[in-house]
Fold 2-hydroxyacid dehydrogenase.
Amino acid sequence: MTDIMMIGPYPEWDLEDLERTYRVHKLWQVEDKDALIASHAGTIRAIATRGELGASAALMAKLPKLEIVSCYGVGTDAIDLAYARANGIRVTNTPDVLTEDVADIGIGLLLAVARQIPQADAYVRDGRWRKANMPLVTRVCGKRLGIVGMGRVGAAVAKRASAFDCDIAYFDVRKRDDLPYDFCSDLVELARTSEFLIVTLAGGDSTKHIIDATVLAALGPDGIVINISRGSTVDETALLTALESGAIKGAGLDVFWNEPTIDERFLRLSNVVLQPHHASGTVETRKAMGQLVRDNLAAHFGARPLLTPVV
Ligand code: 8YV
């Protein structure tokens, strides 16, 4: 049996399937990770990881027989791709299968923040409704939406927002001629002219803290930010200050800088809706992601072309 190392857990159905085919070393289950790595370094040929956990150069360097890193997620920002490329290690991810679910949560969070759905639920449950009507909230349909990053997820968010009659503009490194939405090459300008911003960019150095104090100030006190990309894309200090001071109206966040141990200031805010990095977390999508991880591993070890190669 081929030895593979998993960095974090997958659902039981994926694990069972992987264990039928490979000898699986579960890094997250052991206290002494270095000991596990050292004792199997000579045989581990694959890493199965998750988008947010990645694989560092330091880890890959400890595995001289490593041939492939298969990522259960589309984002590969936590995998050292340069190291993989330089050392002939293949990398795969799980694009497309999660796009629709992530876009659903983008719109879901926007509705939840603007229409205050969690607050409304609490209002009914704790009996306040019997005493007075709930204060009025913010409309979503017909508003001007700025999408930061027009990749697969950005386009899927735009499609949904079109059905809400939103006026859609987007920021990206390049204009997409295949899409009808307004392109804006200046992110601050996009924020200034938008009522809502939904961030769908890939993580990594080039997008780190792209949503900063200047962008938030441009969005203004009626603005709402939704982040379904990576925690790294938002300067959280600036975001927390803007949320606490009322410089923006609210935020819906699926991802955080230091997840899952997030900044506790978020927990004290009433103008945020928080999600535990769960935008792709449906049974349907996670099954498809797990299948793609296994199919890429099978293709690699069967000397067939990878299905979704990154490196
Ligand atoms: C997953 C993700 O939550 O696709 C990504 O990049 O971050 C998410 O879909 C994650 O990879 C599952 O662990």
